[in-house]
Give the backbone structure.
Amino acid sequence: MFESNQKTLNKTINFLGTGLHSGKKVSINLEPAEADTGIIFKRTDIKNNNEIKANYTNVSSAKLCTKIENDHGVSVSTIEHLMAALYICGVDNLVVKIDGGEVPIMDGSSIEFVEKINETGLKILDKNRKFIKINKKVELKLDGKSISIEPAVDSLKVAFTLSYENNPLIKSQTNCVDFKNKNLENIYSARTFCLYEDIEKVKSLGLAKGGNLDNAVVIKGDKVLNKKGLRSKNEFVNHKILDLAGDFMLAGMRVIGSVSCKHGGHLLTNDFLRKILSDRANFIIVESLKDISNLKKITSDQKRIAVNA
Ligand SMILES: [Zn+2]
């Protein structure tokens, strides 16, 4: 996913499913798009102003899921697991046609998206990717949660710590992932999860109407209620890393940096992207990672030009 050229899908693929929060049936088509399109959602159930760019500036809500909205109030929610699949598979350009307001939850992870995208294959486009390369440490702390990013050589690394001290099964989990690795199955197969005692609370907020044991891990005390148990011993923290990758995809370019996050979620990640990208001193834009080895030279040349100007 850090190769030089932009990519799209070889051909259109379709998914049918149910929205986790709305409980509504929905169909999505992932359609190939030309270079520099980015990821665009298009609501086919709405006639006008129905396009929403998948960008961090369009995030209108990040409560339990990530929702994007355009200037006309048209929105799509729960985009994060699809965005994470696009991140992991290396897709840059796509039109996502959707006939409702929420991306289907599938099995609660990104595995169905990833497998079908890999099976369909990608088309390499004749244009370079651009990367956001972090220049210096940036940090954000909020209500006992924290996230930071530091420079990295050529990939996105994520160290995540999750803590549910009152739950005897989850307790505290930490995992560290380099997204340059080829085998990320433990990440993209990790499902969304919730505590049994929180279900009524979430449902009373009008959320999780489509939630069930086929699309979420439910934990009661020290037991997993799903018949087949967990997919990996770190499934909870692995899912948080998956969410973070999906939310980072909304930067519009792949970020090169080393992230460390404690107890974060969609809201913290979105606030953090806004903080990083609001200050040009935090990053540089690189065209193709082949250029990175030349970066020192380029930046020192730029400095020289600045001094001469
Ligand atoms: Zn999630």
About this structure: Residues 131-293 form a domain with the lpxc deacetylase, domain 1 fold (CATH 3.30.1700.10).
